[in-house]
User: Fold these one by one.
Assistant:
Number 1:
Amino acid sequence: MTIPAGWEGIFEKDEKILWQGHPDTAVHIGPRDIPRMAFGSVFAGFALFWMIGAAATGGYFWMFGLLHFTVGLLLALGPVFWGPYRRRHTWYTLTNKHAYIATDLPVFGRKLKSYPVTRDMPLELEKADIPTVYFAEEWKQRKNGSYRHKIGFENISDGLTVYGLLRDIQRNKP
């Protein structure tokens, strides 16, 4: 088998690409985004109100509110702009042995994560207009505890096909 350009040194000897794709880049606002967006709007609104009041007193003291206003806007508009941008810079590959997720984001850089396809991997299909196939999970730490983060090929138009491919690979594993 000839290894595709860019994959040299990554694939195992008998590894073959079964599917490649990328997530849908449309704006998707989920239930977790709504409270963050609401808080950001209130935070930015309060900062704007404070800056107007501070500017009325004269001087440049109002500029201290710019940081808070910017943070509020980022929280309020992040899901609208960051989500599609992140998805535009994400690529998925499924082989007969691994699921790969590649990203190329500013500040975070280029990353390639590999998840071995095993018989007991937690496989889940989230049916929606644009399906998501989850195949791994990791625990993330927060200040007040930890939570389970699902990993997979998110918002892919051919999610049913990919889910079927993963099930076939699992069935054929020893």
Note: The beta strands are 17-21, 90-95, 98-105, 109-116, 124-126, 132-142, 145-153.
Number 2:
Amino acid sequence: MTKPADTSELAATEARRLGVIYGLAAYLCWGFFPLYFKSVKVVPPLEMVSHRIVWSLAFLLLLITWKKAWRSMLELLTLPKSLAVLFATTLLIATNWLVFIYAISVGEVLQSSLGYFINPLVSVLLGFLFLRERLERPQWISLALAVAGVLYLAIEYGSMPWIALALALSFGLYGLIRKALHVEPLVGLTVETLLLAPFALYYLVHLNQTGAGVFLTHSTRLDLLIPMSGIVTAIPLLLFAAAAKKLRLATIGFLQYITPTMHFLLAITIFGETFTHTHLVSFLFIWSGLALYSWHAYRFVTRQQVR
């Protein structure tokens, strides 16, 4: 006869296994994003973001109906404070999308990968500044190495890598604010998208009326790819939410390096972006900071398990 403790342990192991599968799927999807957005680069960034919002909402509402979650969504819409938080987070994630699509369209995938590499360290800094989380010496050194890498790149090129910084800050702030709101992921994401949908739809209608829009004016292939942005946007977010429920934050932290690594490899192998000596030095600073940060996180988790 199987002991209850054994059953519980098997269930926990299975949950972790599923969590890793969901997490890998989410970060691999995000890793291939540059290929998708390169295929629709003829669409201006603001128009593409508007399509992402509108088509994501359509897909999410189908999921809400399938999950029978309309009541939860309508209840959330009656909470002014929660809506204010979600409006702030949706502006941040939309900004992140806009900057990322712009980076793809102008051939700056390498800089976008830099942004997502430094994002974990930005999150650590935001936790210190706004949540009063105590930083230990290895974390301070990690932050210093990341700052050194960004400053070196800025000094050598004569300007700040604003794309990387905007991506890291917008996603870091999104996570910080979203952390304060305990809402079921599908419902929260749907309401976030719903709040911006009227503005996005108005902009798309305006483009259509003025003849400036791309959708339904170019090729059939493009007209099929643009609506897919809703599925492309929503699925990895939902996979990530499912993974986050089943995995430790430390595990999620390690998995999140998959996406910028894939962006980095795509930039220098497929998109032909130049990886200079300056890039190498800057990335080495940042990768060193990430390695130290990861090692410290791993040691912390190990100590917790021993106790």
Note: The chain has one domain: 45-229+276-306.
Number 3:
Amino acid sequence: MIKVMIVDDHVLIRKGIRLLLENYPDLDVVAEASDGAEAITLALKVEPDVVLMDLSMPDGLDGFTAAKEIMAQLPAAKVVLLTMHDEEIYVRKAIHLNIHGYTLKKSHENLLYEAITSVNKGERYYKTGFPEEQLNKLFDDQEKESILTNREQEIVRLAMLGFTNIQISRQLSISPKTVENHKTNIMQKLHLKNKHELIRYGIKNHYLDLSI
């Protein structure tokens, strides 16, 4: 039996999803939450296997923030974002946060069941309006980015903003020589030749967007 929690600020949507899921004998809806804060509290209490999470919710705690907190505190729990948003920036953010699944509210009932059972088995499940080739590229970009440490990623972002090595060193409280060493490592890891290629890499991979 897969324990499922539904998170959405619209009660009718939550009830509708519950009715759909009750058609499957191997699913058990153990909780419903109306916002991100309640989702975190309930998740810690009922420990669901899968959380169906809306993105846009009231009170300043969106689905991304709630999902990140739940995954941090309940590593065994899987999160599927169930949303109307089909824009690349949202999908890219979900991939960046290592969220297990992403599907649209307009999806067919069978796809919702497929999403739940797939992520529960440890599989990745992303069904969007994007062509499969474009979606695979987003995952490839994330894999390349994960090669860099958090400090190296921050240096790339600051370089994109036009900071010099001295300015970056002051911003990060490290020496200019350390900044230069980090940049050398970054260039070697990404197989880049110069600053212009580094900037193009950062733009192509939406480094500035990842802070949203």
Note: The chain has two domains: 2-132, 146-211.
